[in-house]
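In response to the reviewer comment on reproducibility (Comment 2.3), we provide here a single inverse folding case reported in full, input and output, so that an independent group could reproduce the run without further information from us. The C-alpha cells appear first.
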C-alpha cells in the first residue's frame, strides 16, 4: 500500500490561515470546507486533519497524525514525544509574565510567594525552577489577563504580541519566558514511505521560505562597476550579466536577501547602479 502522510493543522484560529497558505504555496491542492475534519490532498500523498491546536502534540504522539503544525509554545508546554522538524516563520509571539502596572517590579524575585495564572503551567514551572523562585501556579484555560483584576492571581503568564491586551487590563510585561512561532512537528520514527513524503514536503517548504526571504534584483551599471557590484550582490552562484544596447553599459541580475535589502540598495546606487528593479521570487531552490 502506498504511504500517506497525515498532517494535523489547527481547525480554526490564529495558526490556520498561514498553515493552509504554506501548504498551498508548497503546491498541495485540497479543498477545506468549514466543518471538515479531514481533507485529502489531490496531488500529493498527504491527508490533512483539522484539530484544536492544544490537541495536536498528543495526536502526533499517539500517531493518529504523523506530523502537525502548532505554536512552539504549545509544543513545549505539552512535552510530548514529538520532534521539532522546522520553524515556520509565522504566528510569532512571546510568552511573557505580566503584573499590574501599579506594582513596582524588582526582578524575578518579585514573584516569590505570589500566584501566577496561566494556561502554560509546565513552562511556568520550568521558568520558576530555573530562577529558583517559589510561586503558586493557577492553571486557567482562557481570559488569563483578567485574573489579577478579579483577585485570582498576582501575575499572569500568557501570549503577548503587541501588548494591547495587557494594556487594556492594566498590566505590564515584566519577563519574556519564551519566544514562539509556528513549528512543524512529527513523530520521531516514521516508517520509510512517510519519512520520504515528509522530506519532499520539507524541501518544498524550504523553497517557499527561501523565496520569501529573497528578492530578484535587476539593474543597469557601467561595465567598470561590475566587479564591485558583484561583490555587493553575489547572488546564488554569480550574477547574470547582459550587455545593454548602450555602449559600455550592462544589465546585471542577481538575488538579494530581504534583510539587507535597503542597505545594499544604498551601496549599489553609490557604485553607479541605475534603473534598479526588485521583483518577488515565488520559489527558490539552491
Ligand atoms: P484552539 O481553538 O485551536 O485551541 P486557541 O484559541 O487556543 O485555538 P489561537 O488564539 O488560535 O489559539 O492561537 C494559536 C497559536 O497562535 C498560539 O498557540 C500561538 O502560538 C499563536 N498566537 C497566539 N496569539 C498570537 C498573536 N497575537 N500573534 C501571533 N501569534 C499568536
Ligand atoms: Mg488552543
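Designed residues, in position order:
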Amino acid at each position: 500500500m502506498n504511504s500517506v502522510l497525515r498532517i494535523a493543522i489547527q481547525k480554526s484560529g490564529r495558526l490556520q490561515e498561514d498553515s493552509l497558505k504554506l501548504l498551498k504555496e508548497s503546491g498541495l491542492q485540497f479543498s477545506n470546507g468549514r466543518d471538515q475534519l479531514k481533507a485529502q490532498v489531490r496531488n500529493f500523498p498527504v491527508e490533512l486533519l483539522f484539530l484544536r491546536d492544544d490537541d495536536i502534540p498528543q495526536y502526533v504522539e499517539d500517531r493518529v497524525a504523523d506530523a502537525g503544525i502548532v505554536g512552539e509554545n504549545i509544543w513545549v508546554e505539552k512535552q510530548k514525544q514529538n520532534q521539532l522538524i522546522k520553524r515556520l516563520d509565522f504566528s510569532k509571539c512571546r510568552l511573557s509574565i505580566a503584573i499590574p502596572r501599579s506594582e513596582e517590579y524588582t526582578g524575578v524575585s518579585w514573584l516569590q510567594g505570589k500566584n501566577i495564572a496561566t494556561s502554560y503551567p509546565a513552562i511556568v514551572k520550568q521558568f520558576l525552577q530555573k530562577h529558583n523562585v517559589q510561586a503558586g501556579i493557577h492553571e486557567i484555560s482562557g481570559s488569563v489577563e483578567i485574573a489579577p483584576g478579579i483577585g485570582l492571581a498576582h501575575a499572569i503568564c500568557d501570549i503577548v504580541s503587541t501588548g494591547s491586551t495587557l494594556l487594556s487590563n492594566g498590566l505590564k510585561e515584566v519577563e519574556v519566558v519564551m519566544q514562539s512561532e509556528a513549528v512543524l512537528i512529527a513523530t520521531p520514527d516514521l516508517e520509510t514511505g512517510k519519512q520520504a513524503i515528509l522530506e519532499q514536503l520539507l524541501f518544498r517548504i524550504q523553497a517557499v521560505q527561501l523565496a520569501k526571504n529573497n528578492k530578484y534584483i535587476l539593474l543597469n551599471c557601467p561595465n567598470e562597476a561590475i566587479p564591485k557590484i558583484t561583490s555587493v550582490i553575489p547572488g546564488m552562484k554569480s550574477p547574470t550579466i547582459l550587455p545593454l544596447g548602450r555602449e559600455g553599459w550592462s544589465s546585471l541580475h542577481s538575488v538579494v536577501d530581504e534583510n539587507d535589502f535597503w542597505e545594499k540598495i544604498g551601496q549599489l546606487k553609490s557604485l553607479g547602479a541605475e534603473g534598479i528593479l526588485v521583483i518577488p521570487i515565488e520559489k527558490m531552490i539552491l
